[in-house]
Amino acid sequence: xxxxxxxxxxxxxxxxxxxxxxxxxxxxxxxxxxxxxxxxxxxxxxxxxxxxxxxxxxxxxxxxxxxxxxxxxxxxxxxxxxxxxxxxxxxxxxxxxxxxxxxxxxxxxxxx
Amino acid sequence: xxxxxxxxxxxxxxxxxxxxxxxxxxxxxxxxxxxxxxxxxxxxxxxxxxxxxxxxxxxxxxxxxxxxxxxxxxxxxxxxxxxxxxxxxxxxxxxxxxxxxxxxxxxxxxx
Lengths: 112, 111
Fold this sequence. Notes:
The complex is a heterodimer.
Chain A: E1 4-7, E2 10-14, E3 19-25, E4 31-37, E5 43-49, E6 52-56, E7 59-64, E8 69-74, E9 83-90, E10 100-102, E11 106-111
Parallel strand pairs in A: 2-11
Antiparallel strand pairs in A: 1-3, 3-8, 4-5, 4-9, 6-7, 7-8, 9-10, 9-11
Chain B: E1 5-7, E2 10-13, E3 19-24, E4 31-38, E5 42-50, E6 53-56, E7 65-71, E8 74-79, E9 88-95, E10 101-102, E11 106-110
Parallel strand pairs in B: 2-11
Antiparallel strand pairs in B: 1-3, 3-8, 4-5, 4-9, 5-6, 7-8, 9-10, 9-11
């Protein structure tokens, strides 16, 4: 049983397309993270959110706490957006720390 | 340009040898995380420190792995003895609260 499920696993898009990656989780959380991992292996934290919506450039992340669901949108996609996008959640904060759960990632390829 | 640094970037060793990976977190960050990434398991949290105190190391095999923060500028992850199944990329991340900045990773190959 995976606490975090992502869909789709793989996604191919034409340059300029609007892209949506979905993440559903089954645990109580204090925050949800979207991570980007490029083919070279480096990981960048794109967003950390606990409610509502955040926007950074062409990237938009939304979260619905009641439905335990988050989406990552990329507008006007570009080949440089090709990467693996990982959804991760942190459980409620406690004196013993947080629990972290990771999705298996969505591999995005944007074709020129 | 502050960033998390990890050394070594690549390590090849033989089964049974001790491996030490080092991480220098970004100055001022109060949380440090160690992750392992493999093709089979994806990303897994191994250990988590807040203000240098270990808060969660439940993801770490205790018999062979140990994580420490001897001071605020250094976090270490040791494997002794190493096994081929430990081959993976090990990432360190530092942050404040839930925010995280990842290091470039150490690619470990145990033969």
